[in-house]
């Protein structure tokens, strides 16, 4: 029996991880409606646009469900000057019960199905009030509401933010109790929620983003990336040389304990070799001021030809297809590189955490600049065929991506279908 699902989307990461579920849901003959409730620019994301090939798919911006007075209120907040309360939090208050009920009415007029958000924590100041209201509405209507992955667990340690000096931060995951169920890709993510939820409400279903079936779908859809060399000041004794190693360096947000001065030194070290082309990709959800700004200003005066910075307009998947190897400071995008067999250099000396990739695959761990330079030179000389120990790589894939097997996306569809069937039963869990 065909069902309808409502997906609320708010940023790049949850689009990246939830679109595969939407694609599988639609492929199974169901209907899906996506509502973006953050920035309207996300409506043009190539992954959301790709879903338009399905007749049973619709895409909306939250403003479509606002009344004229509510639209005026939102515009006034956007145009307002500085306030003690962030604009996105003030805007989220506009998305009240009336607005969300209009969205529910549009989708579930004569239908039933699951309501899906991404992972919502207590630190999700703008998203949490919206999710709380949606959860109340879903329960009143007898609809299941579920939290789907918007990422993974790229850290093998627990105190991952710069100011984490104890384990008090664990409480941020308690907010997930507003949902009927929380879905996670692996046990490393599941343990975040176990102190707060019954075991049956936490479902380990594998990675919707990094499984082989979805990577195959993305292969022909992901935009290509072209490296554009910049004019540079010639280095003493430098002669032209063919570019023969493409590296992409994925950064994290400044809220994490990254040693930024050493990041810059590593960039200098690598770009000193003209045979290397390096792209430095900023995190898709930055917070705080950019710690590399002084470096940008220096590069305006002395550009480096084989160095390029990438921001939100360049998709991480595009860079993964372009590069020969990945440099990583504990980001989940490195999981895709492991899955497809591209080398990951886990830059452990650049941060105060312990990346999951390095913890499970010791050969990826870079403890100092020497390790990086020697590994890069080895890749240039011998290629990447022998970079991974097969046992370690397969262990990573089995524990982090294909959990418990590689039938990941059909498992998500079956789970959502079961949620709807269970919600129709009188014994459904009370709110």
Give the percentage of residues in beta strands.
5-15%
The count of β-strands is: 13
How many separate domains make up the residues?
A: 2
Query: Main sheet?
Result: 7 strands, parallel
Mean pLDDT reading: 92
Supply the CATH architecture of the largest domain.
Answer: 3-Layer(aba) Sandwich
Q: Name the CATH superfamily assignment of the largest domain.
A: Glycogen Phosphorylase B
* Helix proportion: 25-40%
Distance between the termini: 26 Å
> Low-confidence segments, ≥5 residues, pLDDT <50?
233-242, 426-431
Topology:
Elements: E1 4-9, H1 12-27, E2 31-36, H2 46-50, E3 57-61, H3 68-79, H4 87-92, H5 97-107, E4 115-118, H6 127-141, E5 145-148, E6 181-184, H7 187-190, E7 202-204, H8 212-219, E8 245-250, H9 260-271, E9 276-281, H10 293-301, E10 307-310, H11 316-322, E11 325-328, H12 334-340, E12 344-347, H13 356-360, E13 365-366, H14 369-382, H15 390-401, H16 408-423
Parallel strand pairs: 1-2, 1-4, 2-3, 4-5, 5-6, 6-7, 8-9, 8-11, 9-10, 11-12, 12-13
Account of the 3D structure:
There is one protein chain. This protein is an alpha/beta fold and 431 residues long. It has 2 domains: 4-211 and 403-423, Rossmann fold (3-Layer(aba) Sandwich), CATH 3.40.50.2000; 227-399, Rossmann fold (3-Layer(aba) Sandwich), CATH 3.40.50. Helix content is 37%, strand content 13%. The protein has a 7-stranded parallel beta sheet, with helices on both faces. Strands 10-9-8-11-12-13 form a 6-stranded parallel beta sheet, with helices on both faces. Helix 1 packs across helix 16 (408-423) and helix 5 (97-107) crosses helix 6. The longest helix has 16 residues, at 12-27. The two termini are 26 Å apart. Mean pLDDT is 92; it is low at 233-242 and 426-431.
């Amino acid at each position: 029996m065909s069902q309808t699902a409502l997906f609320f989307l708010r940023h790049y990461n949850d689009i990246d991880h939830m679109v595969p579920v939407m694609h599988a849901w639609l492929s199974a003959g169901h209907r899906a409606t996506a509502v973006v409730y953050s920035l309207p620019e996300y409506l043009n994301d190539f992954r959301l646009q790709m879903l338009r090939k399905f007749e049973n798919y619709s895409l909306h911006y939250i403003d479509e469900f606002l009344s004229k007075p509510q639209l005026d209120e939102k515009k006034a907040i956007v145009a307002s000057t500085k306030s003690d309360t962030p604009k996105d939090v003030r805007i989220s208050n506009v998305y009240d019960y009336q607005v969300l009920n209009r969205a529910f009415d549009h989708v579930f007029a004569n239908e039933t199905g699951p309501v899906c958000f991404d992972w919502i924590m207590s630190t999700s100041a703008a998203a949490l009030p919206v999710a709380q209201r949606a959860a109340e509405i879903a329960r009143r209507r007898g609809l299941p509401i579920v939290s789907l992955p918007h990422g993974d667990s790229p850290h093998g340690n627990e105190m991952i933010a710069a100011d984490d000096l104890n384990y008090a931060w664990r409480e941020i995951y308690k907010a997930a109790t507003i949902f009927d169920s929380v879905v996670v890709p692996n046990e490393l993510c599941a343990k975040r929620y176990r102190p707060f939820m019954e075991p049956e409400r936490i479902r380990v279903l594998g990675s919707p983003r990094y499984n082989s079936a979805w990577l195959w779908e993305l292969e022909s859809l992901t935009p290509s990336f072209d490296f554009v060399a910049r004019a540079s000041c010639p280095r003493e004794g430098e002669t032209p040389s063919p570019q023969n190693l493409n590296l992409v360096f994925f950064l994290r947000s400044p809220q994490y304990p990254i040693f930024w001065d050493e990041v810059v030194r590593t960039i200098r070290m690598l770009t000193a070799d003209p045979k290397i082309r390096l792209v430095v990709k900023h995190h898709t959800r930055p917070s705080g001021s950019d710690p590399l700004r002084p470096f940008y200003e220096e590069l305006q005066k002395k550009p480096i030809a084989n160095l390029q910075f990438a921001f939100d307009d360049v998709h991480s998947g595009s860079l993964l297809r372009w590069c020969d190897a990945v440099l990583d400071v504990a980001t989940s995008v490195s999981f895709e590189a492991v899955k497809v067999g591209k080398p990951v250099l886990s830059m452990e000396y650049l941060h105060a955490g312990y990346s999951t990739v390095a913890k499970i695959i010791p050969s990826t761990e870079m403890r100092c600049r020497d390790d990086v330079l020697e590994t890069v030179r080895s890749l240039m000389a011998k290629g990447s065929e022998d970079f991974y120990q097969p046992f370690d790589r397969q262990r990573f894939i089995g524990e982090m991506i294909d959990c418990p097997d590689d039938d990941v996306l059909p498992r998500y569809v079956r789970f959502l279908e079961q949620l709807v069937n269970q919600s129709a039963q009188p014994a459904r869990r009370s709110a």
